[in-house]
Every structure is written in C-alpha cells, then in structure tokens.
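Every protein is a chain of amino acids, and every chain bends into a shape of its own. The protein below has been through that process, and both of its lines are reproduced in full.
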Amino acid sequence: MYHRGMKRAIFALLLLISLLPPSPVAAGWRDYRKWEYINPQDLEIRIIPEELEVIAGQIATFTISIRNKTDKPVHLSFDTGQRFDLAVWHNEWQIYRWSQGKRWAEAPHSIPIRPGVPETYQIAWQTVDRLSCPLPQDIYKVVGIVMTKPRALMTNTARIRLVPPKLVPGQVVKVRLMQAFELDLPLFLDQKPVEWHIDYDYNDNRVDLIGERRTVRTVTYVFEAKRAGHVMMHLYARPLYQNLGRGVERRSYRIEVVSGGE
C-alpha cells in the first residue's frame, strides 16, 4: 500500500509540473537557441573559383554560395558587418586570410536564406606575397567561410593552380598503344637558360617518361604510351638555378593514346 501511494503521489506531481507555464528564463533560452543556432545539414555552402588556373601575381576570384535545402527560410545570424571570409593554404600552411587587417563595426543582425534563392558573395585574392611579388607557381587550396555565430560554417575545399605568365597554345599528339613518342623543347627562352618540369592532369599510368636526350640548345623527352585514353600534359619552363616557383612559360599537350586498330 505504501509503494502504491508513493507512485500515485509522484505521478500527480509530474502531471502538475507539466501543466505549469514555462519560466521566463527557460523560454528565453529556448528562443535564443532557436534564433542563433542552425542545422548545417539544412544548407549547402560551396566555393567556386572563376578560373582553375591563374597567372601568378594576378587576381583570383571566388564565389561563395549558400543554398537552402529545406522548404522553410533559414536565418543566419552575424555579430558584425562581416558575413564572409576566405582562407588559402599552400603545402598545409595558411598563407592568406582575406579578413586580415580589416575591421567591421559591431552590428548584430540576421539574414534569411529562402528556398530556391541562394545567397552569393564574391571575394578576390591577389596572388602575391607580402612584398607584392608573385607567389610560387603551384597548387593552392582555398576555403570559404560564412561568419555565422556562434560558430562559422566552412565551404568545400577548392583548388587552383598558379601558372607562368606565358602560355604556348596547346597541341594534340596522337600515338598508338605501347609505342614511344618524343617532345622537343628549348633549353633557352629569351636567351636565358631554363629547365622543364612535367605535370599531368590525371595521368593514371597512361604515359610514362622513359628517357631524354640533350644538346646544347634543346632537350628531347621520350615517352611511352601504356594505356588507351587521353592525358593532358603540362610542361613548365623555369629559370635554371632559381626558385622553382618562378616559371616563365608553360606548354600543354593533349596526348591521345589509341589502340592499334584506330
């Protein structure tokens, strides 16, 4: 009887608590959380470079977009007038932050992201170092940031390549499977000695470098075609005995490897 009476008393107490109006503090806390926090799964946040290849020293432009994946407006809250930012990495080191050195006034506000109406913003980055010299020619990783509170939201990682200032128009080289082919390149550009460096867009062992021949003025690279398909090959001319990131020219070749019957 005692235990049955205790159960009835506890049940009555819980029922009474559930019928009480929420306290102002608790209600305000829930409203604050609903206003400030968002579910990242409700949004698609992306960054897209305007160009995948940019001449080192020139301006690279990116578009950050926020798309609402739900059927209701999503409100993003900000503490200041800054809504977006940009970070750039090279060899796993952050080398640039768009917001560095800038200031924004405190201006708490929110913006609605409606379904079917993405919010976009463009950010530009001049690809130079602190001395205003062109950055080394290489691949750089770029991430966009939406400066929502209490925590920022990140975009995908985009990649761009900084390339030499001079681009020689591309050529198409057609070669049969398991045959060798050669590319002749100068060892002097504008009467200055250069060294060539080879790079590929997804080679996947279709083309292999198997040798080279040199004269005083030229170098001949010998390749072998090992798998059918096509490969984009890029050759970068860089000044001899200087920084490898200071290329002066790029030549591109589309290598088409075909079977014997084609």
